[in-house]
Specification:
This protein is α/β, with parallel strands linked by helices and 248 residues long. 23% of the residues lie in helices and 23% in strands. Strand 8 and strand 9 form a beta hairpin.
């Protein structure tokens, strides 16, 4: 059994006191992290699934990597559409326990896929990510597979989000179903999602900042608080999970 925490869509600024659409991202992330450290720690790994920065500045990633270094647990960090992937990687490569793209925990293998398309809002998986996925599946032995990426790989019922998700989503869903993947975690949509398709459980996690209105035709935000996801990966392949809303 392994315990995982997922934080996504932090949208941090280079100035920790700066705001984004009425929220100070550093403060709301600190609140989410404080709650997690009090109630859901220790974790066997932490997943940071994209849009870690809102401004792509190097010092934003250095500050976050410095925070992550204090967790003393493996970290997987992947870029979202707002991120500078090179600055992100340079900062997190210095974090002890940084797991890269593949992490093995007892009976599970976690695979982190980069779905960023530079200078675009939508996502796509490049050829190297398809190879990574195939190689990770082929060498997993008897481990269960958990995939994480930034962009949502299926329709979540919001018209304005339809064109900015994963562009090769159908091929991706077919692939991970054929590989026997247990679950796929994503962010980007700033809302909670939990569904099953062809044996794969799809789990969307709200932001540590502002949330989007579920089912909306046009861009709309809610007053919901920061959130993160807690997961318990069972040895038999089952997953216990919940979205934790902070200060609710």
């Amino acid at each position: 059994m392994a315990t995982i925490l997922q934080f996504t869509d932090l949208h941090l600024r280079d100035d920790p006191a700066a705001s984004v659409r009425g929220v100070v991202p550093q403060r709301s992330f600190d609140e989410a992290l404080y709650h997690a450290r009090r109630h859901d720690w220790p974790a066997d790994a932490v997943l940071l699934t994209g849009d870690l920065a809102n401004d792509e500045y190097e010092k934003t990633y250095v500050r976050l990597a410095g925070i992550a270094a204090g967790w003393q647990t493996p970290v997987l960090a992947i870029p979202g559409n707002h991120d500078n992937k090179h600055a992100l990687r340079a900062a997190f490569d210095a974090v002890p326990g940084m797991a890269g793209n593949v992490l093995d925990l007892e009976r599970w293998r976690i695979v982190a896929l980069d779905s960023q398309v530079p200078r675009k809002v939508h996502g796509d998986l490049a050829e190297d990510m398809w190879r990574l996925l195939d190689d990770a599946a082929a060498t997993r032995d008897d481990r269960h597979l958990l995939i994480c990426l930034h962009h949502h790989p299926l329709s979540i019922g919001s018209r304005w989000l339809e064109n900015i998700g994963l562009q090769n989503a159908e091929d991706f869903r077919k692939k991970i179903s054929a590989l026997g993947v247990r679950a796929c975690l994503f962010g980007h949509a700033h809302q909670e999602w939990d569904s099953v398709e062809n044996g794969v459980r799809y789990l969307g996690t709200p932001s540590t900042g502002r949330q989007f209105e579920p089912g909306s035709d046009n861009f709309s935000e809610t007053d919901d608080p920061p959130a993160y996801r807690w997961l318990e990966l069972q040895d038999d392949g089952e997953i216990e999970t919940k979205v934790v809303w902070v200060n609710r």
